[in-house]
Amino acid sequence: MLEEEIVEEPILISNVFYDTDIREALADIASQAMITILVDDSVSGFVSLEITDVPLEKALEMVLAPGGFVYKKMDGYYLVSSGSLDSPAFKNITRTVRVDLTDLTAQELISILPEYYAQYVKAIEGKSFVTITAPDEIIEKIKEIIEITDTPRKQVMLDTVVTEISGEEAENIGIEWGGANTGSYGLQFGELASIGGIFERLERITATLNLLKKEGKARIRSNPRLVVLDGEKGEIRVLRDEYFAITTGSAAFPTTSLETISAGVIMTVSPRIHPDGSITLVISPEVSNVVGAGIQDLPVISRRIASTTVRVKDGETIVIGGLRQLIEVTTKTKVPILGDIPLIGGLFRNKKQTVDDKDIVILITPKII
User: Fold this and answer.
1) Tell me: the pLDDT tens digits for 36-78?
2) What does the pLDDT read at residue 17?
3) Mind spelling out the 3-state secondary structure of the chain?
4) How many CA atoms within 13 Å lie on the side-chain side of 131?
5) Whole-number pLDDT of residue 120
6) What is the distance between the alpha carbons of residues 363 and 85, in angstroms, rounded to a whole number?
7) Ranges under pLDDT 50 in the chain
8) pLDDT of amino acid 3
9) Which CATH class is domain 94-149?
10) Which residues, in sequence order, are bridge partners of residue 361?
11) Which residues is 324 bridged to in the sheet?
């Protein structure tokens, strides 16, 4: 004999509430459905609503939603609460889940969440997950926000070439970085964006610099590649260390120590990717050189600093020029002993002063990866 499967009929609720105390409305629903509904002290307010043949749990949602209240089906009864952290039934109406993050840090996620939802989220510094302790409805809402915001960010590869050219050849390449002279190499400069010198977009600049390199008129100091997250900051350093003897103390008891000075090129770049695939770069280059000695033979450092923002297409090359250095170098030589003789010592000493004119040209090609 086959047993018939018994299907329970859904409990349907019909009622009209007009400016009714929400606790009374819940009591009416409990009476009609012949169930027990417990309401904690955090639930209060009024409701106006007409429902006809609505399933029990849907009816509860409709009554509770305007006040932001939640319910949970327990063993033999329903428990209703505000769901707030200080509500009496909080520990009974909530559960705790762990959510792993893909791109955001836990602290970044909490800063993004609306304050109402953030109170339910806990993070451990340095960890890539959060815990959520809240009613089921709030847990699902927070997960929806995480799904929208915690997406892997794109990265930008910055292919960079730092080249050193003599001042004369820099003018021959194409101009005085912003003027109209096309130079002996016949390069045509396009749209300009100002910075201490200039920003340029050139298709032939790399080939020209390679030609100058072969002719010994240019030197590629560095060719670093840097991968930076969209919206983050990357830094490129092409430096050399120079050592100076620093003497302190009295003439009778001098103390000499060796100090290090770093000079060269430092450049920070912050890329931002746009929906159309173009890239905005915030670029801040600094070129420094030790140009001589000052008071008490302390080193004198010359710096050229610039900063600008430029928008380019993916794979388009930006050229930064005009970061020129005029370095005066004084070289002193003398014949030992003879050069120190009073009156005639000058005949055995030599002082030579030279000026080294260099132009730092930086090429940056950003590519989205």
Assistant:
1) 999 999 999 999 999 999 999 999 999 999 999 999 999 999 9
2) 93
3) CCCCCCCCCCCEEEEEEEEEEHHHHHHHHHHHHCCCEEECCCCCCEEEEEEEEEEHHHHHHHHHHHHCCEEEECCCCEEEECCCCCCCCHHHHCEEEEEECCCCCHHHHHHHCCHHHHCCEEECCCCCEEEEEECHHHHHHHHHHHHHHCCCCCEEEEEEEEEEEEHHHHHHHCCCCCCCCCCCCCCCCCCCEEECEEEECCCCHHHHHHHHHHCCCEEEEECCEEEEECCCCEEEEEEEEEEEEEEEECCCCEEEEEEEEEEEEEEEEEEEECCCCCEEEEEEEEEEEEEEECHHHCEEEEEEECCEEEEECCCCCEEEEEEEEEEEEEEEEECCCHHHCCCCHHHHEEEEEEEEEEEEEEEEEEEEC
4) 8
5) 95
6) 56
7) 1, 174-203
8) 54
9) alpha beta
10) 163
11) 359
Position 18, amino acid: Y
Phi first, then psi, for residue 111 (nearest 5°) are -70, -25
Which residue is it, tokens 């050399």? 240
Domain with CATH 3.30.1370 in the chain: 94-149
d(CA 64, CA 304): 65
Q: Facing residues of 347 across strands?
A: none
Q: Which residue has the tokens 């010198």?
A: 197
Tokens, residue 32: 């009609």
The answer as to CATH 1.20.1300.10 being correct for domain 12-89 is no
Cα dihedral 140, 146, 152, 153 sign: positive
Contacts of 220 (CB under 8 A, 6+ apart): 161, 162, 163, 164, 209, 213
Write down the pLDDT at residue 125: 79
Please say whether the beta carbons of 248 and 325 come within 8 A: no
* Positive or negative torsion for Cα 220, 224, 225, 227: negative
The per-residue pLDDT for 187 is 33
Token pair 């340095």 in the structure block, residue: 126
Structure tokens belonging to residue 155 = 């990265």
What residues does CATH 3.55.50.30 cover in the chain? 12-89
